[in-house]
Design a protein that fits this description.
This protein has a 7-stranded parallel beta sheet, sandwiched between helices. The longest helix is centred in the middle third of the chain and has 28 residues. With 251 residues, the protein is an alpha/beta fold. Helix 1 packs across helix 8, helix 3 packs parallel to helix 4 and helix 4 runs parallel beside helix 5. The chain has a single domain, classed as 3-Layer(aba) Sandwich (Rossmann fold), CATH 3.40.50. The chain is globular and about 50 Å long. It is 45% helix and 15% strand. Bound molecules: nicotinamide-adenine-dinucleotide. The site of nicotinamide-adenine-dinucleotide has 29 residues, from helix 1, helix 4 and helix 6.
């Protein structure tokens, strides 16, 4: 059985992924900045194979320290990393602040890079591994109320390609691009869109209804694709951005 790190593991897609890996018998290190939600998500007793670390992945020093703890307690073993921690600063296009742009890039891009950077020595010394970054269909579409998020997710795809090139052949790196997924993040986005006076067609269920499959995904439907990309079954796949959008985006 393997050892995996999942960032953003206290909620949504990260939580569903951590649960799938745990059910499969792996040791899962769950990283999240929200200690309260992390504790509630994994009330399992010590020794159950789930370990939690409270960390802001955009903080270089704290993220390096978290991976030092993981290295020490796992005897240097690590087989995979999932970067699911993410934020969605929102605002009308001409109202966005520098802070909105910095937050999106610090967490979504730099946070993913830091986790990749500090996991790489462990993955290499464990004989190789697989990294999955959460991008988004937003990377490939305009985002009238989420410009920094869309740009940051395009950067996550770019980061994925560079990392796949630089870390090959022992470490594979892929991105998953979900569409509308029923998670706490989307509830927050819908409420903010309403408060910004955005058209009802941008609400998550209305958007999902326009995709061929016509409904939001569950977190587990995304987690199952992540689990596949982490596995040996995906041994010849690297540098990809895999859409999980119900057909909303096909490029
Ligand atoms: N929900 C969707 O429809 C959807 C669609 C496309 C892409 N995504 C992407 O998938 C990923 C997971 O989304 P979700 O819907 O599960 O979100 P979520 O809000 O339910 O969970 C995100 C988790 O990340 C954590 N987090 C945020 N900033 C952090 C930081 N700096 N350090 C550590 N942890 C941090 C939060 O505490 C939270 O537990 C995100 O990267 C998101 O952009 C989601």
């Amino acid at each position: 059985m393997g050892v995996f790190v999942v960032t953003g593991a206290a909620s949504g897609i990260g939580l569903a992924t951590a649960r799938r890996l745990h059910r499969a018998g792996h040791v899962v290190w769950c990283l999240d900045r929200d200690a309260g939600r992390l504790g509630a998500a994994f009330p399992e007793p010590a020794g159950s194979g789930v370990r939690s670390v409270t960390v802001d992945v955009s903080d270089d020093v704290a993220t390096r320290a978290a991976f030092e703890v993981i290295a020490n307690e796992s005897d240097g073993r690590l087989n995979g990393l999932v970067n699911s921690a993410g934020v969605v600063p929102m605002g009308a296009f001409d109202d966005l602040s520098v802070a909105d742009w910095e937050l999106a890039f610090r967490v979504n891009v730099i946070g993913s890079y830091l986790a990749i950077r500090y996991s790489t020595p462990l993955l290499r010394s464990s004989g190789g591994g697989s990294i999955v970054n959460l991008a988004s269909m937003a990377a490939k579409l305009a985002g009238p109320y989420t410009a920094p998020y869309n740009a940051s997710k395009a950067a996550v795809i770019s980061l994925t390609r560079t990392a796949a090139t630089c870390l090959a052949p022992s470490i594979r790196v892929n991105a998953v691009c979900p569409g509308v997924v029923a998670t706490p993040a989307y509830e927050m986005i819908d409420a903010t869109l309403l408060s910004l006076g955005a058209p009802p067609t941008l609400q998550s269920v209305a958007r999902a209804a326009t995709a061929p499959i016509g409904r939001p995904a569950s977190s587990d439907e995304v987690a199952t694709v992540i689990e596949f990309l982490l596995s040996e079954a995906a041994a010849y796949i690297t540098g990809e951005d895999v859409n999980v959008t119900g057909g909303f985006v096909m490029h």
